[in-house]
Amino acid sequence: MNLEGKLTLFDNVNISNIKSNGNVIYMEGDIINVEWNHGYVNNSISNGPFLKTKSNNIDIQFKSFIFKNNENGSKNDYGFISMANNININIDYSEFMNNESYSSGIFFFNDTKNNNIYINNSIFTSNICHSKGTILYLNEDTSNEYKYQKSISIIESNFEYNKAGYFGGVAFINNRIEFQYNLDIRKNKFFNNSVGVAGGVFFFEQPNDRIYYIHNLLKMKSNENEFKNNKANSHGPDFATHPTQFEIENSNNIGGLTNNEIKNGIEIYSGETTSFSIILKDKLNNIVEDLEKFYSDIGITIELYDYDRNEKVPNYSIVTSENIFNRGNCLSYI
């Protein structure tokens, strides 16, 4: 469907009980301008997104739109609404319910440049994706990212009982969210969302210090966002990143390290023993429990050095419960 520069209006359109071996709607053209007013899409089963376009400039509006009981069975063609490049999307008074995707979730935005994402007074409930980002998967074009303008507004909307197989029960963000982003996220409810690994609500693929600002912004009392009963099997029921840091804690056992010893370095004498715990955490200080062993390639190596000679001691014994982390903790005895 070539829609170069034209307004395509779907007004009171009902699409139900449809099956497709690929996309249901595929749009071509450098400029795409689409409005869905009072649309209804139900029980669409496809092997790819319901709506897909790779156009350079996309303006799409969903107003009083209902999208429910739909399925994308493809593991390689992501999401239900798939777009790229320069995106302006408005979602007003709409509902997305009981949809299932075998890849990412509802909105898959790939290689984005300029983007304006606006969600207002909408409901997202009981959606499932088997991978990452049940409602939003945002992947940024990093070739020249600082020249682009970006905005995300989510206002007075409900996100409940959404589930992702791995990361981002609501959103999976694969970009740095640097200072060119204008964020307005307030008066939303994030209840009972869950993931198989991390980030029951938001997961950030690229950890940086800006994530602290976003976390605090969304949790700020004046923004009136509510987070309740969100779950992650490994870490971060509300917010999470991949593991980024180790933290050493003194053991409660006799002979354990004191806090000062941990801070200034671990020093013991011949014949003595000591013990300490190494805790695996993400950028937001969530303990990475990793019950499903997603991070099984992360382990530790401990070596004993002569303090004065700064050389490895030839004969010593270090005993660990195991050389990988169990519930974010590796307990070591020397």
From TrEMBL:
<protein>
    <recommendedName>
        <fullName>Right handed beta helix domain-containing protein</fullName>
    </recommendedName>
</protein>
